[in-house]
Amino acid sequence: MTLTINGQSQTLNVEPRVTLLDALRERLGLPGSKKGCDHGQCGACTVLIDNQRVYSCLTLAVMQEEKNITTIEGLADGDNLHPIQAAFIDNDGLQCGYCTPGQICASVALLDEVENGSVSSITPDLNNPPQLAELSEAEIKERLSGNLCRCSAYNGIVAAVQQATGQTPLSPA
């Protein structure tokens, strides 16, 4: 099978039961996506498939042919970090770093979802989706609730998303 990963075509010969996460890490040498729980509960393995966030531990590699897969390794443009990556650094949105690739991919998807008019379960008016510049802290937390951080770097993660939306993040107390 052939997968398009980070803009490059990759040919693999894997069994039909191999997850995308295992194909990325073990067959393609892309270790950025982490195997946390391997049950779709932590989000450490989050990647983008056709610009939508997906837990790569829960999807089979063979199901991803003809789709565009972006991993943490594919977000930067050479030495130029993606704005979310830079914001995570600026706002200390990480501690041990294990969940960070998944958190960053989920945050990139969050920005795309808001730009495309997607609502969340806490959006007050479903007919009036929030705009990036007015995205509340509660809305950011809800939209990232599928990605866990055992170190509790959530304040920095929220601040990073706020910075990427053009907001001024609150200073940590």
Please provide the ordered H/E string of secondary-structure elements.
EEHEEEHHHH
Q: Determine the mean pLDDT.
A: 95
Largest sheet: 5 strands, mixed
What's the shape? globular
Quaternary assembly: single chain
The CATH top-level class label of the largest domain: Mainly Alpha
Domain count, please report it.
2
Specify the structural class.
alpha+beta
Tell me the CATH superfamily of the largest domain. Answer: [2Fe-2S]-binding domain
Number of strands: 5
How much strand?
Answer: 5-15%
Name the CATH architecture of the largest domain. Answer: Orthogonal Bundle
Uncertain segments: none
Measured as a percent range, the helix fraction is 25-40%
Order of strands across the widest beta sheet?
A: 2-1-5-3-4
